[in-house]
Amino acid sequence: MTDQRFFTAGGPFALKKLAEISQAEIDPSADPESVFTDVAPLAAAGPRDITFLDNKRYVEAFSNSLAGACLVRPNMVPRAPKGMALLVTEEPYHGYARIARAFYGPPPLEPFMAHTASVDETATVSEDCRLEAGSVIGPGAIIGNRCHIGANTVVGPAVTIGDDCSIGPGASIFCCRIGARVITHPGVRIGQDGFGFALGPKGHIKVPQLGRVIIGDDVEIGANTTIDRGTGPDTVIGSGVKIDNLVQIGHNVRLGKGCVVVSLVGISGSTTFGDFVMIGGQAGFAGHLHIGDGAKIAAQSGVMRDIEAGASVGGSPAAPIREWLRGVAILERMAKKKNG
Amino acid sequence: MTDQRFFTAGGPFALKKLAEISQAEIDPSADPESVFTDVAPLAAAGPRDITFLDNKRYVEAFSNSLAGACLVRPNMVPRAPKGMALLVTEEPYHGYARIARAFYGPPPLEPFMAHTASVDETATVSEDCRLEAGSVIGPGAIIGNRCHIGANTVVGPAVTIGDDCSIGPGASIFCCRIGARVITHPGVRIGQDGFGFALGPKGHIKVPQLGRVIIGDDVEIGANTTIDRGTGPDTVIGSGVKIDNLVQIGHNVRLGKGCVVVSLVGISGSTTFGDFVMIGGQAGFAGHLHIGDGAKIAAQSGVMRDIEAGASVGGSPAAPIREWLRGVAILERMAKKKNG
Amino acid sequence: MTDQRFFTAGGPFALKKLAEISQAEIDPSADPESVFTDVAPLAAAGPRDITFLDNKRYVEAFSNSLAGACLVRPNMVPRAPKGMALLVTEEPYHGYARIARAFYGPPPLEPFMAHTASVDETATVSEDCRLEAGSVIGPGAIIGNRCHIGANTVVGPAVTIGDDCSIGPGASIFCCRIGARVITHPGVRIGQDGFGFALGPKGHIKVPQLGRVIIGDDVEIGANTTIDRGTGPDTVIGSGVKIDNLVQIGHNVRLGKGCVVVSLVGISGSTTFGDFVMIGGQAGFAGHLHIGDGAKIAAQSGVMRDIEAGASVGGSPAAPIREWLRGVAILERMAKKKNG
After folding, report:
1. Nearest neighbour of B198 by CB, restricted to A94, A246, A316
2. 8 Å CB contact between C131 and C150
3. How distant is the Cα of A108 from the closest Cα of chain C, in angstroms?
4. Which member of B171, B192, B205 has the closest CB to residue A98?
5. How far apart, in whole angstroms, are the C-alpha atoms of residue C176 and residue B61?
6. What average pLDDT score do residues B192-213 get?
7. Can you tell me the distance from the alpha carbon of B243 to that of A247, in angstroms, rounded to the nearest whole number?
8. pLDDT digits (tens, 9 = 90+) for C153-182
């Protein structure tokens, strides 16, 4: 059961409604009229909760779960404990996501402007926004409808933010245009100067950074992530991109639609990505590369060349993932022999 | 000598008192009544300072040091310069830590509430707390005795913080319960949404993150480190854990007691750790693993499997440390031969 | 063309003036009196813009560019499109940097103190400084002439900042002395306690951190980067050092003049660097090492030993770069054979 001090559940919902929400089938043994009041993890769920099984590691926890209902794949149905109501789907986690959102949608935004907020007189802030304590909106900035600006966050001059955005606390956003329904988490740093220097043995000349950061719709950006503005071209984050915490995105980088970037990844300047590229944690990219649509980059990869669409790579320097794993296995065997 | 603008020394202390504080033995050649006024590093210490020798790299600096007193291991006694008062112990660094704390304990907290601090009327803040400028305390939050809340730090709704905590400036803390004597450094981000999406080729569905972050006693968390809240289960940081700067801790991670996590480590969701696990810098962990008590993870390791208690691993993907180092040595030899 | 909402161009400039600024030669085919109004990237530049070609990847874009003028190396002159005015130099990027700075110098600082700024009565702030909303200046701090302190940034007690510095928003600076013309980007964390513990199986003793951070002149520090203060010795950042975003610099580290540190690098305590060391992204350094002048450390290197002046290393653990690349190539061939 979720902590009611932090989260307020909607519902309850009948199983038939949950099936509809989750786009799953009700197992014939279950009662479509039975009612559930909350979501919960497998191990903690009780008879009035609905949970899900997605990762094979947790089959045993599933078989021992006291959950009243569970989203499962068809092949897991026989492993269910007696009396558990099953919602059957090939995508239990997607189903769970939809149900959890039904129980715990974002609370309605209560418009507010803290007396310690600073809004420049030339900024345009929709009246239905919420500006927390210490937030700062610069000259000429435009904030769309129903936006939430976190405490002590700074929105710089002429920045535009679309409707229904949530900008977390303690952040700074400069030289940037943001689309609709974007969520940025605490401490993000968007639009500062990129790392641009003409290097030399007697000193380094700073190069003015004259581009912007353009962020699409439905983007999510993790805590303390940094996105530098372009040098002249823009840095572009495509719609639907999800970026984790502590990621570094250099100037002029372009991420296509739906890319997923896990924590502590570093992307050097001017590297571009197609759509739906998946990037594992702590991977790094040299500059001026192109990574094709749908490529998969394993965690801790060091990418030094262009990657074709659909390819999977791993290792540092990154190679096709099978080749990399084979190299790892060969070296492992040699090391073990040496030992024997 | 420390910079008096930043630090104020207690003391002075007689050598016999320093021996007692540091749990060390006075070398027979030293005068227990001799008095010392400060701590200092080997190279900078003068005749009224006490220093320590712990790392063999610095034996020469020790032999040339002008320090009046020094904590050393028994085997280093013969290398001491003439006239240096020695405190002999198997743990010179521990002894130094205790002595430095005697000279430089945390200054007493002067209660204060800045006029630019914002405290919700439903929050409970002990009167002996210190709230710096621009700090924000949300509805229903409870702050224990003698806590220090840094400037421009945001403590979210219903967060609880135990006694004698120091929460650094520019931070944000949400959906979290914190124990006693916890120190968090500037810019920490605790309790934001974890990176939870049901991924799909047409877009990614955000999964509500319904757990909390539970932090034990005597924890220290480094600057700009990010700790996401759980998805339903909690993210748990055990008592006595020490986390360095720029570390990413994903949702549902559990760190046992006394774990040490060096900078730029990334821990993926639902990975759990026993007690006193040591994690080197820039190591990464896949999700849903278990790392046993006392395991040692070398810097830059890429951990993709469970690790047994007491094991040492290195490399990416991580292997038993000897095997990894042997593989490295084999490849090095092959590369050199090729050259010859 | 740059976005006029964010950037205001100076100029225009005649080609002969641009040649003088950039220290380049005017190609004989060009008219020295022709006038240019802006800088722009190759692909976007129009007839009144000046651009540059530095990276061979972009030769085709150069040949197709509509730019009115371009900085190029002598060997690229024949590849220029007809009618493009060429400024010829061995260092086109340096020339571009100088020209871009002529068009887009930092705007003059308009002195200002926000009414939500908090300045301790014992602090000294030059009257020509600009203190943004929510900035906090602690007791005894000294801020030089023409400094810009970003919104919600905290400057701690007794910190000194030299002339013409720009301290970005959302940052915190403690126990620190900063030189002249230093730029720190948003969210930097300077001078907090280093990660200093005497580790033990029953718990870890915190060691007071009694040093400072000393930062030279003309240093630039990236967003959300963390620099811990020394333990007793100082942490020192030499003049002209450029540090990217999300870098961790441990206690007692010393960076010589002109070092360049790319994003997500981690440097453990007491490691010292000569002058003009180049450090690639995500590289890591063990503690207590010395890296000689002019060494080059490849991205993702794991440096566990001292590095000689002028050496180039790569890999984890780091080896001489040719040896490392040869090892990589050998393993790659073995993996491919196995496949065949």
Report:
1. A94
2. no
3. 28
4. B205
5. 26
6. 95
7. 19
8. 999 999 999 999 999 999 999 999 999 999
* Four-residue CA torsion sign, C318, C319, C325, C331: negative
3-class DSSP assignment, residue A323:
helix
Q: How many CA atoms lie within 13 A of C337 on its CB side?
A: 7
d(CA B23, CA C57): 65
CA pair distance C25, A79, nearest whole angstrom: 78
Eight-state DSSP code of residue B75 = G
Predicted confidence (pLDDT) at residue B339 exceeds the cutoff of 80: no
Residue with tokens 């040692």: B296
Q: Whole-angstrom Cα distance, residue B240 to residue B82?
A: 40
Mean pLDDT of B164-190: 98
Residue C338 is predicted with a pLDDT of 61
DSSP string, C42-79: TTT--TTEEEE--SGGGHHHHHT---SEEEE-GGGGGG
The torsion angle over the Cα atoms of residues A40, A242, A187 and B193, rounded to 10 degrees, is: 0
Token pair, residue B123, equals 């929050």
Contact C197 B242 (CB under 8 A): yes
* B6 contact residues in C (CB cutoff 8 A): 157-158, 175, 212
Residue B107 has pLDDT above 90, yes or no: no
Contact between B68 and B13 under an 8 Å Cβ cutoff? The reply is: no
Mutate to test the interface with B, among A55, A98, A189, A263 (most CBs of B within 10 A): A263
User: Nearest-CA neighbor of B243 among C193, A246, A184?
Assistant: C193
pLDDT tens digits for C178-199?
A: 999 999 999 999 999 999 999 9
Confidence band for C89, pLDDT divided at 50, 70 and 90: very high
From the list C55, C258, C336, the residue facing A204 with the nearest CB is C258
Q: In angstroms, what separates the C-alpha of B175 from chain A's closest C-alpha?
A: 6
Categorise residue C339: left if φ over 0, alpha if ψ from -120 to 50, beta otherwise. Answer: alpha
Is the preceding omega at residue B320 within 30 degrees of 0, hence cis? no
Q: Over 80: is that where the pLDDT of A277 sits?
A: yes
The candidate with the shortest Cα–Cα distance to A4, out of A38, A32, A29, is A38
| Strand-strand pairing, B278-279 and B296-297 | parallel
Do residues C315 and C324 lie in contact, with contact meaning Cβ atoms separated by under 8 Å? Answer: yes
Q: Of all helices (H) and strands (E), which one includes residue B69?
A: strand B69-72
Structure tokens at A151: 């405490």
